Amino acid sequence: MMSKAFRVCGSARGRWIGSISFAACGLVVVVAELIGGAPTGMVIFAVALFGGIAAFLAVGGRSESIRAFRGDLRDERLDTIQLRAQALAGQMVILAVVVAFLVELALGKSGAPYDWLGAIGGLTYLGAYTYGIRR
Fold first, then answer.
1. How many other C-beta atoms can be found within 10 angstroms of the C-beta atom of residue 101?
2. CA 7, CA 84: separation in Å to the nearest integer?
């Protein structure tokens, strides 16, 4: 029996949200590749990757990990894990942007577009931090 601490979000509907989201993202990627003239192999890879993930989430069954990932199972512990994972991912993206900016500068270039990405990340962080402090 499942603990009462778990909140089921939308039950049957929640199961399909992740699958539909991955399928929609895959469709956007495939359309962008076709517009850009990507090789057929790249298009097939995108269809297989996004379609495979969507199918895996749809038929993933009762696994706590899969249900938590697709969003139809949540509790405080899983929310904390997701928050930490998002924070780590954000830190790694910011680090990559800063390194790419410095490499561009070292090569004698302007640093664009990494300067804008870094500015957006930094300003967003400062805004969210300020909001959190004053709240």
1. 20
2. 20
Nearest of 103, 88, 98 to residue 121 by alpha carbon: 98
Structure tokens at 20: 């539909």
Residues making up the chain, counted from first to last: 135
Greatest alpha-carbon pair distance for the chain in Å reads 62
- DSSP 3-state of 97: helix
Residues 6+ apart with CB under 8 A from 42: 33
Q: What is the pTM of this model?
A: 0.69
pLDDT tens sequence across 113-130:
999 999 999 999 999 999
Paired tokens of 10:
């939308």
Q: Which residues contact 121 (CB under 8 A, 6 or more apart)?
A: 90, 93, 94, 97
